[in-house]
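Structure request: PTS fructose transporter subunit IID, Streptococcus gallolyticus.
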Amino acid sequence: MTKSNYKLTKEDFKQINKRSLLTFQLGWNYERMQGSGYLFIILPQLRKLYGDGTPELKEMMKTHTQFFNTSNFFHTIITGIDLALEENEGIAAKDAVNGVKTGLMGPFAPIGDSVFGSLVPAIMGSIAASLAMNGNPLGVFLWIGVTVLINIFRWKQLEIAYKEGTKLVTTMRDKLSSLVEAASIMGVFMVGALIATMINFQFIAAPEIGDKVIDIQDLFNQIFPRLVPALFTAAIFWLLGRKGMTSTKAILVIIVFALAMAFFGILGV
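Returned structure:
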């Protein structure tokens, strides 16, 4: 099966939006973050597209449970494009879907967090607090109104993204490969940025040779400032490729390694 005959309906979009608003973060975990939540919000539609219990459904379910993490306020844009691709291409769109998800989740995350997680609360909070200090209850209703508008925005974006995604795979097929390639490159870039910013430890050992103290981390910084996190990440990827190794076992290895390095005063933050 390469292409489904099923076309998504308004009811499908309603179901996805309800799950998105109410359950998207329920399966959040440190290993794959929003991966299970992403699968859950579109699972009924995947069953309609690929058929219940089919090998194609199982393959795409595995695909959608991979690492995914972006802003709660923009993730359905990615979902809409994803579903348009799968509806038109079926499992043949697997690589394109992976590229779009990986490439877009990074850029959308800071935009959504900055605007809806920081900017809007700061502005509306200031206005509401000012009104409250003057004994005016309007601030409460102002907050409610803004929240309703934000949720309407979240509700509408899914279908808009789906329609644009459909145009992409029907009238702009020649540009699809370029988009996928660009998204994949951006995804690699974002993974590199995550490694450099989220994996934060360094050499704290400073051996002495005579009267001179050797600052190992300073030497690494002169060669490659974030070399230690990069080498550590490469080692974990290599470890995950070993037979019998799972993500849970790798996490345990990391914990033991971190405790040992801290105990002997070799690595720290």
